[in-house]
Amino acid sequence: MTSSHPAAPAGQRTVRRHNAALVLRAIADTPGLSRAEVATRTGLTKATVSSLVERLMNGGLVAEAGPAPRNGPGRRGAALSLSPAGPHGLGVEIGVDYLATCLVDLTGTPRGQWVSEADNRTEPAAAVLDRAAGAVRACLAEAARLGVRAGGVGVALPGLVEAGTGTLRVAPNLGWHDIDIPAALRARVDLGTLPVLPGNEANFAALAELWAGGPHDYVHVSGEIGIGAGIVIDGTLFEGVRGFGGELGHFAVDPGGPECPCGARGCLERLAGQEAVLRRAGVPLEGRPSQLLDELIRRLEAGQPAALEATADAGHWLGVALADVVNLLDVPTVVLGGAYARLHPWLAGPLAERLRARVMSASFAPVRVLRSALGGEAAARGAAGAAVRAILADPESFVDAG
Amino acid sequence: MTSSHPAAPAGQRTVRRHNAALVLRAIADTPGLSRAEVATRTGLTKATVSSLVERLMNGGLVAEAGPAPRNGPGRRGAALSLSPAGPHGLGVEIGVDYLATCLVDLTGTPRGQWVSEADNRTEPAAAVLDRAAGAVRACLAEAARLGVRAGGVGVALPGLVEAGTGTLRVAPNLGWHDIDIPAALRARVDLGTLPVLPGNEANFAALAELWAGGPHDYVHVSGEIGIGAGIVIDGTLFEGVRGFGGELGHFAVDPGGPECPCGARGCLERLAGQEAVLRRAGVPLEGRPSQLLDELIRRLEAGQPAALEATADAGHWLGVALADVVNLLDVPTVVLGGAYARLHPWLAGPLAERLRARVMSASFAPVRVLRSALGGEAAARGAAGAAVRAILADPESFVDAG
């Protein structure tokens, strides 16, 4: 992705790279700034800012529109903002029972979202990856139709992704092991020099929540067939020391409980995962996943005892696991995402009751249980957002490569 | 503690405060530096460094000895180091069944450690605080005997301590609630302007481990009657968002398990805490705590089945809880501290077995189970060290107050 720039010596290139990111960050944080205001905020000279802004405009990252709204003497400079026609981030999520894609512009605003339901456990990994590649291709075609180009591809996965390599080490619910995701995707669709950024779906979902204006300290719980957690502390995602954190679904909540595909017993997923709830509620596991969830919610709204009991029970077990998380990390907020966002009205009560009973600090430092504004679309959106954030963090690499 | 310095304007005082900390940090990190070398490392002028070093020497924080070992031209400057006669940190730990104190010099080296065993659950809080104050007084007398003065008092507590106020909100094993620790201590012993720094014992123990050269990313488990965890990520203690984190002892490992004084069921402490192990091993709970632990270890060394089974069982439950921690945080190392340091040979096996079985990343990112080098003395030592670190972080406040 980084190409050399033979005209400038190494030191100068490093400085320009740093300064370009600084300028773009200022424009992203406060759309409408003039060049002079960017200079004031960044501490760079006006000449440097002008030169960098020109480079960023030529690279399609920054647009100017009319004069900046400014008081005081002097000519009003043009208002700068991230270009809506700039590179877009493409996100694809390989869920256990669906594929989702999302296209966002440089500001992170979604330009399109698609979901295709299919049980990815019943096909070999290669076939699922073929379909994922097809979804990426469709998303690239959509970007072309909109007249924009893609700037990177984020890939959300229901498993443990190695931070340095992007290798999916294990996805228990899919039964997948050691798949080099960037290589697998590039082998199926021509991505040229576009960066591919694989990551855990729960982490991407937590990031999407943060970027959509979520709180600063929280645990975001992605409830699907698997259950994952994204930990955000002081506005920063903590993925674990080596990138393998957030495996809430395999918390041991009932040592004598049912067996889990991971090999252990009594994992939270087996007691509070989507399929466990549907099964206990008596919803036949036939049809598309969203239909099953719709059916469960219909039964909950109708006050059907089996559905109410199954969901309350899931809330109880979720509360047991999250009480451990809060006892360990002292996070003040839990955000329910994925399918749990839709089940929030029935889950939150029993969950909060367990937190009150088990969290040591609950009486003087209560824990809020919020509902994700994004729900099931969060992971693909977070993956797309990550691709865009990578450009904002290092615009020179993008401009060079373009 | 911070006193004003009317001679210098506010801006200058802030700068000097910052620079004094910078200079002292450089000397602490690399003992033996000359003034010129400190200037090079900090980027400050030699004149500024000389002036600050003189101030720090007058305040008793820095000592010089002979010429610094240096090559190259020019006069050799005197070698600077933290003064061994400088202010000492005093740590006191109020354990569930003991009181411990520790005196450390500016480098964190212990100059004295004392433990006094007594069941602090059988007396009212006021009486225990009287004895703790007595221990602090004895420690201050020892400092006077050594010809050094105290620079601050760290207080390690077996409960949840509010970060801003130093109030002990709850200590379940003592049955204590809402005690303003600094006020309680100052009411009993004349501490003048000495800062009092209360904190959770497991966190202080984890810090002592870090300062003694422990790894950079780990969970330190303090196993006493209660069980606490100190989380160190990238060389920094994470105490939780509001300071109430690390409550490993109340992880729910067996939902049908025994009741806990905290009000919940099946907490780890009830299954793997020191008293639970002693009881299951058949050791009569009479005598001093260290005698009970000695007796357990004697039985373990003799291969007595009840003792072996009880300890292995504790290791198993500890492994269940720590698997959750590793699944959540992906920490590569667990350090067994407190009484667990002595029980390591019998606990580590069953514990590691559970980690291998339950941690999702165990097969490709194994978890080490280490034994604390400090054991039961860690918390008091960490508390004393914290008092010293506070001086190193802001030497001007200390010099001003002195």
Automatic annotation (TrEMBL), chains A, B:
Residues 20-64 form the HTH marR-type domain. Pfam families: MarR_2, ROK. Transmembrane segments: none annotated. InterPro entries: ATPase_NBD (IPR043129), HTH_MarR-typ (IPR000835), ROK (IPR000600), WH-like_DNA-bd_sf (IPR036388), WH_DNA-bd_sf (IPR036390). SUPFAM superfamilies: Actin-like ATPase domain, Winged helix' DNA-binding domain. GO terms for molecular function: DNA-binding transcription factor activity. Belongs to the ROK (NagC/XylR) family. PANTHER family: BIFUNCTIONAL UDP-N-ACETYLGLUCOSAMINE 2-EPIMERASE_N-ACETYLMANNOSAMINE KINASE (PTHR18964:SF149), ROK (REPRESSOR, ORF, KINASE) FAMILY (PTHR18964). This is ROK family transcriptional regulator. It comes from Amycolatopsis suaedae. The lineage of its organism: Bacteria, Bacillati, Actinomycetota, Actinomycetes, Pseudonocardiales.
